[in-house]
Description:
Elements: H1 3-7, H2 10-19, E1 21-24, E2 29-32, H3 35-43, E3 48-49, H4 78-86, H5 92-116, E4 118-120, H6 121-126, H7 128-138, H8 145-157, H9 165-191, H10 197-202, H11 209-240, H12 242-250, H13 255-265, E5 271-276, E6 280-282, E7 285-287, E8 292-296, H14 297-300, H15 335-350, E9 353-358, E10 378-383
Parallel strand pairs: 2-8
Antiparallel strand pairs: 1-2, 3-5, 4-10, 5-8, 6-7, 9-10
Amino acid sequence: MTPEVRANPYPLYAELRRRAVCQVEPGGMWAVSRYDDVVTVLKDSRRFSSEGLGQSFRPPWLERNPTADSLVMKDPPDHTRLRAMVSRAFNGATLNRLEPSIRAIAEELAEAAVRRQEVDFVAEFALPLPARVLNLFFGLEPAMALRLKHWADDLVSIPASQPSPQRQEEIRHSLQEMERCFHSLIEQRRAHPGDDVVSELLRGESLTQEELLSFLFGLVPAGVETTVYLLANTMVVLSEHPRELERVRENPALIPRLVEEVLRYEPPGQSSLRLTTEDVVLSGVTIPRGSLVVALVGAAMRDESRFPQADRFLLERESQSTLAFGHGPHYCLGAMLARMEARLGLEALFSRIRGFSLQREDLDWSQSIIARGPRALPLRLEPVR
Ligand code: HEM
């Protein structure tokens, strides 16, 4: 968690891959960093459990937090049953229906950013895009998009450290506000179903009220923070590879490839946490039962045995085998949506700029072991004539 590692974790990851499996700070958790080992951890929910991770979202100062019971913190058989029920809200038809609205949001944000030229790319583009898309997905009033971002920040800050009494109060307030908002949304959709995610989840064999609430709570951090960093990391990577920007501007059909390579080279989700349910031997090292394991996806995707020239950013890379959206039972339900948001956002932006420059080199990177991206990204955009 040191500033140097936050700014560039990749040399440390290389060292960790040499040692395969070892204990690291904070707290002596077990770091797994080679591609094959990370796949083993993510695939095997019997020995590497997600249940119990919810505890960190339920600290003693917080009486209630439905996020602690969200899908990503469950194991089979509960996870399997819930996932089968919620998956239908993420089908291709939903995405096709959302595409024109997402494109319109992307164009509006790109137009405004390019007009201003000097922007904080995170605050003015990367963040409002997924916040407004999630808002649309929920079918909430447009004005709620900013609240979603605020809630996402509050939720992800819960496991970190002991917050001040004032901060605890703010977080409690956000959780109560979220609960009121989602309760009222559920009631409205029960009475007047529409074509949004909540109406879809209320149809047919449905979840209990509490399961639905936890699922919606879980979508707030899952749907916002990661996509913000995917967009922001793309611009950071392109600032270091200006020739690649020219190539995607000349040929926008390369944008999906660009997104995939950013997901590998600078993944917004750097790791996933698990708890061992028994002693497990991985790469010859025994991880004792009850240990906290950090599966370092960011390290796995720089593993030379899987990705030749792993430290190079190469648009022509063919075999991706990406772990950026996880692997196995918890594979990201929003992966197609996130890819679509990134594609439409970057298409809208790149068609309006000739180039851009980073206004400062020493970026303030997220202080999270899971999500990686700059908290602010001052850019100067050069509009096309
Ligand atoms: C670039 C953007 C995104 C990235 C990098 C990302 C990454 C991930 C990863 C790595 C996981 C697995 C976590 C684990 O195994 O512990 C995950 C799960 C999940 N993601 Fe995403 N995600 C993104 C966007 C989204 C969006 C836009 C949504 C929904 C609106 C979403 C919804 C979910 C859900 C519901 C799960 C839990 C699936 C389960 O536990 O079965 N994600 N995501």
